[in-house]
């Protein structure tokens, strides 16, 4: 029997779903649109003079959202996907390959990339089914899709719809705030190298405190419309920095035989976390598909998703392989830290990339603010000066990321921790669960689906547990050695 043929509007056994849809096609719960959670969010902004076209969606929310026009071409969407997935994580791939081995590493990166792509297709399929069944005018985002799947599933799990929807937002906030912490460490370490070369020797903590000032100023920008130029400049700078880094990495390469083919087992969890940190862009797929002129072109065999993620996988493997081959065990958490300190071009790339990351911080920071601030308002009530209240909240949240970054000044380990905890949950755990629940609800569950989804889930669980443990263990050890030194 088809799901739509069930009594009581298709709900299971006449039960009442805890996740209702209002007349505007949104859940009656507070909806926080988590649109871009990747390393380099792309925000297409419509001009004030031009009236919006037929279809509109909103990036952000709570009074800060900016209407965006729908139609984006295949090429435009592909560029958004590429820029959204290729960010600071790509410079850490050399360290990731070191923790797996120069032969095993690229193979596992390819394997993880394929699994992540598979999970992204699962999310797209589930979102489409939920959108069709609930007849919402606008396609649901990641968190809404999770809530709808559980609300429309078997009776025993319907009561978890609110919790699961909020859980996605929690992991999303952890991921985004983790990026912000990593950005502070990344910028400070790169700037320190340049300043040290010119005789201005200061502790990395002091550099971080100085970097905090421009970071805080950009984070106080409340409207995405004014953040859009930051994204454009950041992407240009990151592209230039990437090209220069590759140029240095291919100079005087040693033979592969000088590198470890397969690393020790105890370093593999660190590799897993770092790789997932770089690959975590699953929150990008739904909004990008929704903004296309022809959404069907997004997930077809040679569509935007397959072509874009295929290119991303190749770039990650290439950058990781060349970086580790060039610098070996001396590879740092970001390959930019390995570039020659005496070359002007090498020094410039560190500043270029650091500036690009600094301009990306407020875009990553926007997401957790968009989630947490409304919750704060609900608990403290209406404010006499709401704008001032939000600015104070933003300042506190920036200081929170600053304190974390100061406490854990080990970039490669922190990247691995963020990837192991939240990136794994979003990229590898939620999609197979959603697909299993949806297939069961529709009576379409097969043994092949169960096998593949359970394998992906188990892989994610093992990677998350071992990666988190090893990352925390390594961070504690590194911090103790740092204090003793």
Number of helices: 16
User: Tell me about the biggest sheet?
Assistant: 2 strands, antiparallel
Number of strands: 2
Separation of termini?
A: 68 Å
Mean pLDDT: 77
**Shape estimate:** globular
> Which structural category do the helix and sheet elements fall into?
mainly alpha
**Could you give the order of strands across the largest sheet?**
1-2
Unreliable stretches covering 5 or more consecutive residues: 1-70
Question: How helix-rich are the residues, as a percent range?
Answer: 55-70%
N-to-C SSE series?
EEHHHHHHHHHHHHHHHH
Tell me the Rg in angstroms. Answer: 22 Å
Strand content: under 5%
Membrane topology: Multi-pass membrane protein
InterPro entries: AA_transpt_TM
Protein name: Amino acid transporter transmembrane domain-containing protein
Keywords: Membrane, Transmembrane, Transmembrane helix
Question: How would you concisely characterize the structure shown here?
Answer:
It is built from 16 helices and two strands. The protein has helices at residues 74-85, 93-98, 104-134, 142-151, 155-158, 161-197, 204-219, 224-249, 268-279, 285-290, 296-299, 304-327, 344-380, 386-407, 411-441, 447-484, and strands spanning 56-59, 66-69. The chain has a two-stranded antiparallel ribbon.
Characterize the structure shown.
- This protein has 485 residues and is mostly helical.
- 65% of the residues lie in helices and 2% in strands.
- The protein contains 16 helices and two strands.
- It has helices at residues 74-85, 93-98, 104-134, 142-151, 155-158, 161-197, 204-219, 224-249, 268-279, 285-290, 296-299, 304-327, 344-380, 386-407, 411-441, 447-484, and strands spanning 56-59, 66-69.
- Strands 1-2 form a two-stranded antiparallel ribbon.
- The longest helix is centred in the C-terminal third of the chain and has 38 residues, at 447-484.
- The chain is globular.
- The N and C termini lie far apart (68 Å).
- Pfam families: Aa_trans.
- It is found in: Membrane.
